[in-house]
TrEMBL record:
Belongs to the cytochrome P450 family. Keywords: Heme, Iron, Metal-binding, Monooxygenase, Oxidoreductase. InterPro entries: CYP11_CYP27_families, Cyt_P450, Cyt_P450_E_grp-I, Cyt_P450_sf. One of its GO terms (molecular function) is iron ion binding. It comes from Stomoxys calcitrans. It comes from the Eukaryota. Its cofactor is heme. This is Cytochrome P450 301a1, mitochondrial. Heme binds at residue 412.
Length: 463
């Protein structure tokens, strides 16, 4: 990966994962990385399952040294002992997660946001209509619009406010546009900070300096909106006529604005790009798979005869084929190319004694596409996720081959909101619109996430 002389670029990480397996087999040691421990790539899903199941209550997930340095060194004045859930490990991670996990994962909290997120999505679809050109096509930078929708959704959940990202003609110096730019910059450059030679650890490179500036901006924005929510709570009291918001629950239970701020920051940092890129991938797969798209549309038409019917959790639960389609996109084109753990004790894996401290990598982008674990793995078949009574087909599907949200104690904290946002968007869009893609096929590459690389000029026409 060295500039100019190396054969790989950051965008090839998914390809490298696959080539390592083809060339070396089920277990591959990858050493000699500048400033980093050896990596152990595992392609045996049974061994991956064992690692997950034996990890205890405080799994060590190697992640984002850049965020770790920012939280524990650059802004120790702000974070102190409250590192949050991203880039934090051991007991400090467990303690923080235990403070916020219950309100984030409660079904009542998720239900509370269904209608507000539907309103955001309606605004987004109206904006999409206004962006169509004479050929009913969306603009080249449509992925930026998806980021705006994602950020508006997360702002609604984590900061209890509408950020205004979907307004037309945002000026470059407006707060929503600054938030969008900061989010994209921070996350798009994490890949470079994480995977290239980490000079920023030893002296402040221009990339690192810009990254810190962006992160400081995020902290300020989160603080501003959380202070506003706290003032509202003090003056009006908790929500009397229904479920309190996520922010209200955390502030009331923890009596500490900083915990709410750090939770919001983590949800925003990790959520914007992952959900946006996943949606880009889903829309591209739908637009290039007309048969499957038609099946989703037929299911939605049956469940929602009148497109203006408000969504409910009961309706979303019945969208079996739509949810199967989402899972199949995650299996074949996993947005997160892998997960991993730093081994906390000496472990025997595939007959090898592996010392503690080694970083084990579980490349779901490869294991989800291995015939050994998934029947007819090269075919795109959403039916594999359905029960036989729903039209599913009997075939092998190892439960640990594709884990888009991870597994166990460190499973993605925001997974319920991520699922909710994606299901709302896809159901609202595909109930009323047909998507097509009439250009050269796009390749997938890694920026920070694994997603189609190129302009998403979808044709969007009303049914």
């Amino acid at each position: 990966m060295m500039p100019f002389i190396g054969q790989y670029t950051i965008g090839d990480v998914a390809k490298i994962s696959s080539q390592l397996h083809e060339q070396y087999g089920q277990i591959v040691k990858f050493g000699g990385l500048i400033g980093r421990p050896d990596l152990l790539f595992l392609y045996d899903v049974d061994e991956i399952e064992k690692c997950y199941r034996s990890e205890g209550t405080t799994p060590f997930r190697p992640s984002m040294p850049s965020i770790v340095k920012y939280k524990s060194v650059v802004r120790k004045d702000f974070f102190g002992d409250l590192g949050g859930v991203v880039g934090v490990h051991g007991e400090p991670w467990r303690q923080f997660r235990s403070k916020v996990q219950k309100p984030v994962l409660q079904l009542s909290t998720v239900r509370r946001y269904l209608q507000p997120l539907e309103v955001v999505t309606d605004d987004f679809l109206q904006r999409c209509e206004s962006l169509l050109d004479g050929n009913s096509e969306l603009p080249e930078d449509f992925d930026n619009e998806i980021h705006k929708w994602s950020l508006e959704c997360i702002g609604r959940v984590a900061l209890d406010t509408r950020l205004g990202c979907l307004e037309s003609n945002l000026s470059p110096d407006s707060e929503p546009q600054q938030i969008i730019n900061a989010a994209k910059y921070a996350l798009r450059n994490v890949a470079t900070l994480e995977l290239k030679a980490p000079y920023w650890r030893y002296f402040p490179t221009p990339l690192w300096t810009h990254y810190v500036k962006n992160m400081n901006f995020f902290v300020e924005v989160c603080m501003k909106y959380i202070k506003s929510a706290t003032e509202r709570l003090k003056s009006q009291g908790p929500c009397q006529n229904g479920e309190p918001s996520l922010l209200e629950k955390v502030i009331m239970s923890q009596k500490d604005e900083k915990i709410a701020t750090i939770m919001a920051l983590d949800l925003i940092l990790v959520g914007i790009d992952t959900i946006s890129m996943a949606v880009c991938s889903m829309l591209y797969q739908l637009a290039t798979r007309p048969e499957e798209q038609q099946k989703v549309h037929e299911e939605l038409k049956r469940l929602i005869p009148d497109p203006s019917t408000p969504l409910t959790l009961q309706l979303l639960d019945q969208m079996h084929y739509l949810k199967a389609f989402i899972k199949e996109v995650f299996r074949m084109y996993s947005t997160v190319i892998g997960n991993g753990r730093t081994l906390q004790e000496d472990t025997v894996i595939s007959g090898y004694r592996v010392p503690k401290g080694v970083q084990a990598v579980f490349p779901t982008i490869v294991t989800g596409n291995m015939e050994k674990y998934v029947t007819d793995a090269a075919s795109f078949r959403p039916e594999r996720w359905l029960k036989p009574s729903q039209g599913g087909f009997e075939g092998n599907l190892h439960p640990f081959a594709s884990l888009p949200y991870g597994y166990g104690a460190r499973m993605c904290l925001g997974r319920r909101f991520a699922d909710l946002e994606m299901q709302i968007l896809l159901s609202k869009l595909l109930r009323s619109y047909k998507l097509e893609y009439e250009h050269e096929p796009l390749n997938y590459a890694v920026t920070f996430m694994y997603a189609p690389d190129g302009p998403l000029k979808f044709k969007m026409t009303k049914y």
